[in-house]
Design brief:
Helix content is about 40%, strand content about 15%. By secondary structure, the protein is an alpha/beta fold. The protein has one domain (about 10-470): Glycosidases (TIM Barrel). An eight-stranded parallel beta barrel has the order 1-2-3-4-5-7-11-12, surrounded by six helices. Strands 6-8 form a two-stranded parallel ribbon. A two-stranded antiparallel sheet has the order 9-10. Helix 3 packs parallel to helix 5 (about 95-110) and helix 7 (about 140-155) runs parallel beside helix 9. The termini are close together. The model has no long low-confidence stretch (mean pLDDT about 95).
């Protein structure tokens, strides 16, 4: 390891999402999003937390970006709130919203930080939900493409890297299968797959439009990827892993990279009566976009173990740990196909997420072999209960150890032939964790904010200075 470093142009970065950091939820012409409404439902978030103030990045972005520059970040991945640009999702443009994000972009460029823009990080305009059911309707495709195309034109020449959709597998699964995200629907499996198809088409049409406007720009989607291991070498568990991967990973990545669905997964869904309706024109659009995609974005947090799940086995609807009480998460799966038991060989976070640095290298090598695409790690990080001392110190050695181990594996992956353009930690500052409130901290910068409020002052953690050295040496200081 001692001789390994990342290339000089490697994009050392950090990431965020508009709803989780900005606040200012009703200021300067911003419209109402589905998350603004969803969090009003009792019991949906930890201690009823909302993003109405979040960590007030809207008013403090210059302070935050100055800290990024001090750290030496090469890229900052952030999302744009659709409702700040089109308050009603379509129609009139809100110029104050356009100007706000241009100010963020310009501030990044001032410090030679490459802005990386995510077009959609889960906050759909509520007006579109009310008008036609949001992503359930194919009408959403045209509205999304109109929104995306407007931004491509607005920030052309300033933003090179674009991400169309963040974690499509997560927001659709939690939105239509487990009711944990908007629109809060439960076990609507056929709708879930049709919604995904609409999102795929929105992504594809946006990619095609992007390449007409910015042929030299770089665009892709960010997928929440959890590579899997078969429980053991019994064929029944090997087959379960294969089916799991087709239904839980390749269903999305194959569309992004090849423009087609995995054949056996589609056949399974057809037999279940829940397959999406896909026209010949749809297939042409998806294939055309796949030829234009520049990279595979990967949000990596953990791996999965797979074994066969009997017909009377566990369902997809087990309890999800949103409290940080280790051991409260339950095993889930698909009856008759697979389930995901815990991995006895790995430690977990307080939220029962498996800590597996080697899984990041596994993911990169698998993507390289299967798709031969460059990779951007668009999220990776550790959520933890950070504590600030009386003298304003935050000693997060556990976060340093976590990121160190993952970057080490990433460097080995590059040495083994993977083309990796960048690595964005989640996140730069602490922020609102969608379902977990403010207790689950991810940042290099501590924000004095909890469920009851706080000063919102920023404090650099030990990990801030550690990552600063990693960036300055292109990874030479990684243990």
């Amino acid at each position: 390891m001692n001789h390994l470093t990342m290339p000089k142009d490697f994009l050392w970065g950090s990431a965020s999402a508009a709803y989780q950091i900005e606040g200012a939820h009703q200021l300067d012409g911003k419209g109402v999003s589905n998350w603004d409404e969803f969090v009003k439902i009792p019991g949906k978030t930890y201690q009823e937390t909302t993003g109405e103030i979040a960590v007030d990045h809207y008013h403090r972005f210059k302070e935050d970006i100055a800290l990024m520059a001090e750290m030496g970040l090469k890229t900052y991945r952030f999302s744009i709130a659709w409702t700040r640009i089109f308050p009603e999702g379509r129609g009139a443009v809100n110029q104050m919203g356009v100007d706000f994000y241009e100010a963020i972009i310009d501030e990044c460029l001032k410090y030679n930080i490459e802005p990386m823009v995510t077009l959609y990080h889960w906050d759909l305009p509520q007006a579109l939900e009310d008008a036609y059911g949001g992503w359930e309707s194919p009408e959403a495709i045209a509205d999304y493409v109109n929104y995306a195309t407007y931004l491509f034109q607005a920030y052309k020449g300033k933003v090179k890297y674009w991400i169309t959709i963040n974690e499509q597998n997560i927001f659709t699964g939690f939105g239509w299968m487990t009711a944990m995200h908007p629109p809060g629907k439960f076990n609507e499996e056929k709708t879930y797959y049709q919604v995904n198809h609409h999102v795929f088409l929105a992504h594809a049409k946006a990619v095609i439009a992007f390449k007409e406007i910015m042929p030299e720009g770089k665009i892709g989607a960010s997928f929440a990827y959890s590579p899997s291991y078969a429980l053991d070498c019994r064929p029944i568990n090997g087959m379960a892993k294969l089916d799991h991967d087709n239904l839980k990973s390749y269903w999305w990545m194959d569309v992004y990279a090849y423009g087609r669905y995995p054949r056996t997964a589609m056949r399974y869904l057809e037999k279940q009566g829940v397959a999406p309706t896909v026209t010949d024109e749809d297939k042409m659009i998806l294939k055309a976009a796949a030829k234009l995609v520049d990279f595979m974005g990967v949000n990596y947090y953990q791996t999965a173990v797979v074994e066969y799940n009997p017909l009377d086995g566990v369902t997809p609807f087990g309890e999800f740990n949103t409290t940080g009480k280790k051991g409260t998460g339950q095993v889930t799966g698909l009856p008759g196909v697979y389930k995901n038991p815990s991995n006895p060989y790995l430690e977990t976070t307080d939220w029962d997420w498996v800590i597996d640095p080697s899984g990041l290298r596994f993911a990169c090598k698998e993507i390289t072999s299967r798709y031969d695409l460059p990779i951007i790690i668009s999220e990776n990080g550790l959520g933890a209960f950070d504590k600030k001392t009386e003298d304003d110190q935050i000693h997060d050695d556990y976060r340093i150890a976590f990121i160190n181990a993952h970057v080490k594996e990433l460097m080995i992956a590059v040495d083994e032939g993977c083309e990796i353009w960048g690595y964005c930690t989640w996140s730069f500052t602490d922020l609102l964790s969608w379902l977990n409130g403010y207790q689950k901290r991810y940042g290099f910068v501590y924000v004095d904010r909890d469920e009851a409020g706080g000063s919102l002052n920023r404090y650099k953690k030990d990990s801030f200075y550690w990552y600063q050295e990693v960036i300055a040496t292109d990874g030479a200081t990684i243990d």
